[in-house]
């Protein structure tokens, strides 16, 4: 509540006209002072009200009060007054420490830039200390790297291939739980070719990639199992022949084609080969002939593809040797 700093009284025919006092006190608003109006009846109005109540109880009205009650009824606002109370604004609440989500005073923000700069300097010192600690290694690989003699990209490096071979397909390998600093020192010829901070970043990215691929493969395998169980394949095709990829005839035919004597004997008469085993006779003669010729082509093509693969591998090996000699 505020403190009363002044008062006044206005007896009018209507309390609404008391608002004229606001015009005279309008300047108080800028000072935090308000003006309250309280309507109160005068003493005469109170006596006339008591007389009306007495008339209602007695069932009539004395002649001496009849004129007064009639005059009071003529003006409903007659005999009223308005008390004016000028109240000063309450004192402001005391300052309390602001919460974290509230805006801080300007004085508290004065050192914000300094604190941020100090934090950035602390992080930079921590990184520098880690780098200096790892750079203290005096191995031959680190010496070459610091001298600029080693510059191998991580994407095609042996270090990445080594870590990938260890992590793929083995969720319990120690590399998964080993700290980057410990893993960095397990194979210095491979891992010390890179700065420690770069090695740590590349290691985390590689682990994330392997983990994502593993989860995708597991999801695909589970989806394939559900799909296979939902839409099962029968034992025979619509032409009445067994499915060749899952039949016993495929295993026997691969063995027979691997024997050059059998191929030479039945090259032009595969139907005679069909009559030698019951699993061959499950296929129609023309279908068995197609499978026989296909297995022969696969045997020849495998040798050709192997030779081409060997040539490409030798070229890649020579290219790597030349790159290492140039470095």
Features:
327 residues, mainly alpha, flat
Low-confidence stretches: 61-78
Gross morphology is flat
Give me the Rg, rounded: 51 Å
Give a quick account of the main beta sheet: strands, pairing sense, barrel closure. Answer: 3 strands, antiparallel
SSE order, as H and E? EHEHHEHHHHHHHHHHH
Number of spatially distinct domains: 3
Helix content estimate? 55-70%
- Number of beta strands: 3
Global mean pLDDT = 75
Put simply, the count of helices is 14
Distance between the termini: 87 Å
Query: What strand line-up does the widest sheet have?
Result: 1-3-2
Beta content comes to 5-15%
Structural category is mainly alpha
Plain-language structure description:
This protein has helices at residues 20-24, 43-58, 63-74, 112-135, 140-146, 158-167, 174-177, 180-184, 188-191, 196-230, 248-258, 260-266, 270-274, 285-326, and strands at 4-12, 33-41, 80-88. The protein has 3 domains: 4-88, no CATH class; 127-230, no CATH class; 244-326. Strands 1-3-2 form a 3-stranded antiparallel sheet. It is built from 14 helices and 3 strands. Helix 6 packs across helix 10.
SSE map:
Elements lengths: L3 E9 L7 H5 L8 E9 L1 H16 L4 H12 L5 E9 L23 H24 L4 H7 L11 H10 L6 H4 L2 H5 L3 H4 L4 H35 L17 H11 L1 H7 L3 H5 L10 H42 L1
Antiparallel strand pairs: 1-3, 2-3
What is the gist of this entry?
With 327 residues, this protein is mainly alpha-helical. The protein is built from 14 helices and 3 strands.
